[in-house]
Amino acid sequence: AQTVTQSQPEMSVQEAETVTLSCTYDTSESNYYLFWYKQPPSRQMILVIRQEAYKQQNATENRFSVNFQKAAKSFSLKISDSQLGDTAMYFCAFMIEVDMRFGAGTRLTVKP
Amino acid sequence: GAVVSQHPSWVICKSGTSVKIECRSLDFQATTMFWYRQFPKQSLMLMATSNEGSKATYEQGVEKDKFLINHASLTLSTLTVTSAHPEDSSFYICSVDGASYNEQFFGPGTRLTVL
Fold first, then answer.
1. Model confidence pLDDT, tens digit, residues A2-44
2. Three-state secondary structure call for residue B63
């Protein structure tokens, strides 16, 4: 069974600082996709960044980047220059074919 | 990507009644759709996978007779919570399989409160 673990229930960061959210997963498959989703108070799931397991290069989207360590089954999210609007729940997710599973989430608070 | 809508966004019902939640894919052919449930301060838990024109596949522990799913077209899947009870109160989110996009497109969710 595929599992996703987010070991940080809550984190906080000062505005303009950098924060890293951790995620580990477990699978015996070699071909899969990893995602970070943001869920603001509106509860709409917003895709932040995605990574294909077959790509060695870490994905980057503006202020968001990942550190993908396939052998260690680790997929952390780095948010640079944190903004107040980044305050939200962040879910790490893992998908094989069409089956997507989520971690428990990390509540991030950006402080002014 | 795809635009996915859900209706209603919020519903309150009395215990024992049935509630239908619609999930529409507005600009994308949704061969496969998913229904998730999210309790307060918890993660999304997959309830079922809905395939157009065929019966849904339910996750272990999800009562298929209680959570009826119909996916009769490429744009619409419905979730009916039958004989709802307060413990069914939750946030229900649908998503669309993005196929070649290799991701899922999420609806805005429906908050169900059963009194």
1. 799 999 999 999 999 999 999 999 998 889 999 999 999 999 9
2. coil
Q: CB neighbours of A1 closer than 8 A, spacing ≥ 6?
A: none
For A100, the closest of B91, B104, B108 (CB atoms) is: B104
Rounded Cα–Cα distance for residues B72 and B69 (Å): 10
Distances (CA, A) of A100 to A88, A95, A107, B63, B88: 21, 4, 20, 20, 23
Contact B43 A98 (CB under 8 A): no
Q: Phi then psi for B86, rounded to 5 degrees?
A: -55, -35
Determine the Cα–Cα distance for residues A6 and A3; give it in Å rounded to an integer.
10
3-state secondary structure of A106: strand
| Closest residue by Cα to residue A58 from A80, A82, A34 | A34
Spatial CA neighbour of B35 closest among B73, B76, B83? B76
Q: What's the mean pLDDT when you consider all of chain B?
A: 94
